Structures are given as C-alpha cells and as structure tokens.
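FORM 7B: Structural annotation worksheet

SECTION A. Query
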Amino acid sequence: MPEIQLDHFGKQYPNQENPAEFSYVLAPSSFFALSAGVFAALSSVSAKLAVDQHTESVAQALTLIFPNASTRVVGLLTRAGMLVAIGVCNFFMWLFFTKALRYGRSTARVMMLQTVANFATTAACGMYIFGDVLAVRWWIGASLIAVGLALLNTEKSVEFVCESPDTSTQDKKNL
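SECTION B. Predicted structure
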C-alpha cells in the first residue's frame, strides 16, 4: 500500500523557496497567502449575501429552476447555504494562512500578500455582485495600504551590537 503523504510541499520545497528550474511557479507561501486573502474576502461576501436582498433574487432565480419548490423554503435554504459558506471559507482561510506562515520566510510578506488579495477580491465582488461603485478615495486608500505593506516587506534587517555599560575593555581583551 502506498504511503500517504500529507505534506508534500516539505519535500518539494525543502528550502522554502522555488527551485531555479521552476521559477515560473509561485512559491508555496505566496500561493497560500493569496488563497487565504481570497477566502477571507469570500467569507465576507457570503456573510453579506446571507443577510442582503441579493439572496432573495438568487432564491427567485432558483425557483425558476425548481418550480415546485416554495419561494420561502428556497430563500431559507439559500441563506443557510450562505451561512455554511461563511464557515467553509473561514476554515480554508485559516488553513491557507497558517500554511503560508509555515512556508514563508517573512510574516510581513505573508500579511502583505493576504491583505492585497483580500482587497482585490473584495473590490471585484463588490463591483460585480453587489453593484458597488468604488470611489477614487477607496482606490487611493487601498493603493497606499498596499504600498505601505510593500515598504514594510522590503525593509532590510539591521543588526544591532549591544554593549553593556559595565563591560570594560579588559573583559573584551580576555575574550
């Protein structure tokens, strides 16, 4: 019987980076962080659909497909489906987020990618599903947040040398 391998990324990417021959493939941490951001946004969309009037229009469309079903029952099932979708999306968001942190070299990079994916997915869903019109101020704010996260990600680490004030030069010579 073949051995079940639950975590094949550990062997595929032992150094947590892309091998040179597969440079066109996203690093696992980037893929997982982007996926976590998308699922976080989809969880919010599901929550809004669970309580919004758009669910009623989905329920009416479903009654056209299932003409014998009651509109009220289809509406309740649609809302229940959206509540289940919230849980499922949150589960996958946390799963992908923890995997991104595991394979990532930097927590700031994981957070940056997740936030950018969340903003982009939220904007797309808002425009296409809910008909939201995003003002220029929103786009400027989202861009500034993305630039700020990118700047945090590119910050070089600085090593500090700490010397105790009570350390004398004699002690340093003895070392």
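SECTION C. Observations
DSSP finds seven helices and no strands in the chain. The CA atoms of residues 69 and 111 lie 45 Å apart.

SECTION D. Sign-off
Analyst initials: ____
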